[in-house]
């Protein structure tokens, strides 16, 4: 009676491990890029949702609405660092500041990871008037992470109040 043994030889096992190693070497960097692109897209979409919300509320309520960076989520920061969080409020007296009697419509927590979203120091807040327009200069909020300018994106809000996403080429 003969027993036929099945299994892998040492050479077959080494070849299989080498193939797995090579495939993993190609897959891991691509997965990391995919993961970071997805995180940036998610955070861009979250801020764009807040922009549309603020614009719609200005039209529905018939009041000026402000969207501004806020780390504390209780007042606007004197910075243009949107990655630390932001808030949307109804600006009844049109002074572009959150006063005690004004209503906070929504707040958003800080962005995830090492992502940074920074606007120009010349336009730190977004004001929507009763018609949903955002008068003044265009606002650009640049999104960058540790990968540098090659992967940078920006949200640009025009005077009509509509946001769009663009590749910036710089951080």
UniProtKB/TrEMBL annotation:
> Pfam family example for this protein?
N_methyl
The record's subcellular locations are: Cell inner membrane
Secretion signal span: none
Q: Which GO terms describe its biological process?
A: protein secretion by the type II secretion system
Q: Which UniProt keywords apply?
A: Cell inner membrane, Cell membrane, Membrane, Methylation, Transmembrane, Transmembrane helix
Into which family does the record put it? Belongs to the GSP H family.
Under NCBIfam families, the record lists:
IV_pilin_GFxxxE
Name of the molecule in the record: Type II secretion system protein H
